[in-house]
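Comment thread on ticket #2218

A.B. wrote:
> Attaching the input chain for the structure job we discussed in standup.
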Amino acid sequence: MAAADDFAFDPWDPTFVSDPYPAYAELRERGRVTYYEPTDQWLVPRHADVSALLRDRRLGRTYQHRFTHEDFGRTAPPPEHEPFHTLNDHGMLDLEPPDHTRIRRLVSKAFTPRTVEQLKPYVSQLAAELVDGLVAKGGGDLLTDVAEPLPVAVIAEMLGIPESDRAPLRPWSADICGMYELSPSEDTAAKAVRASDEFSSYLRELIAARRKNPGDDLISGMIAAHDEDDDRLTEQELISTAVLLLNAGHEATVNSTVNGWWALFRNPEQLAALRADHSLIPTAVEELMRYDTPLQLFERWVLDEIEIDGTTIPRGAEIAMLFGSANHDPAVFTDPERLDVTRADNPHISFSAGIHYCIGAPLARIELAASMGALLEKAPTLRLAAEPERKPNFVIRGLEGLSVEVG
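C.D. wrote:
> Ran it. Output below, let me know if you need it in another format.
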C-alpha cells in the first residue's frame, strides 16, 4: 500500500482537474490501493481491481440496508440536508438488494431495448435539427446548442415531461449532482436541497396527473409496472427514479459530447479519420468515453472486510474506484494515452459494471452517435473557436462550454 500525501493526486487543484491522467499513472505504478487522508478514502486505480470491485457484493452503494450510521462508524447527514438524501437514497443508484433488484426489475419493464430502439428516429431528427441551427449561425457553443438540449429533450420526452416544463430540468440536475463531488461545500448542499425540493414537488404533481390520465410515457409505465408478487414502486421511489433517469440520462452524455469533441480538436488526425469514414462512429464513441471519462470516480462502502494486495480494508471504510485511471490502464489498453477512434478492443468501464451497470447505456450510445453523425455530416468544417475552460468539478468531468465555428 502507498500513501497519497506526496504526489499530484489533488481533486481540488485546477491543474490536476485539468489533466488528472499523469497522476493516475503514478498511482497505478505505486500499487493497487492507496489511502487518501483528505477524503478518508481508499483509492483503487487499476482496471482489473475496479472491474472486480464493482461486482463484489462485500461492497455497497449504501450500508443502511444492513447497519445504522452508528453501527457503521459513520455520522448521519445533517437534518437540513434531508430533502436531498430522501431523493437520492430511494433511487436505484444508491440502493442495494433486495430494494435495488425490485426497483430495477420494475423500471426495466418500462425501459426495454425495444423502447430505446424505437427512439432512434426521434433522436436522429432532433440531433439534425440542433446541428442545422448551429450551422445556420456559423457556430456557437457546442455545449448549449447541441450537447445539452439533445439528451435533456430525449429523456424528458421519454418520461413524459411537457416541453413547456423542461427549462428547470438541467439547472435542477446540475445542483443535485454537485453533491456527488468530494467534500461538497455547504453552499453546494443548500443548492442541492433546494433543487431536490423543487424537482420532487414538480414530479409529485406530474405523477398525480398521470395516475388520473396515463399516457404512453415512462412515468405512466413505471406507475403501472408490477410483477407476479404485485410489487409496485412507492411514490418516493417513482420520484427518485425519475430524477435519477433524468440526471444520469443526460449528465454523462452532455459531458461525453464536449469532452469528446475537445479531444478530437486536440487530435486532428483522428478527427480527419472520422470525417473520412463515418463508419468509425461506433468505435469513436466508445474510445472518446474511455479517453476522457465523464465520471471519474465512483464510491463504494466496505460492508465486509476485504483485502487488496495484502492490505486489509475494514468494514466501514469507503473505496473510491477511479474510472478515469482504470480506463487508461496499460495492462488493458495498448498505448492508453493515445486517442484511437479505430480502437476495437475497448473494455472501458465508463458505464460501470455489475448490478449498477448503467440502465441507460444503450440510449446514451444512440445519442452520442446521432450528434456525432449529424456534426460530421452537416458541419464538416467544424473547428474550435476558443480554448475551452474546464469545469472545476473532479468527479463529474466536463467543460464550461465549447466554442466552435462552421464555414
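A.B. wrote:
> Thanks. Noting for the ticket: Residues 235-266 form the longest helix (32 residues).
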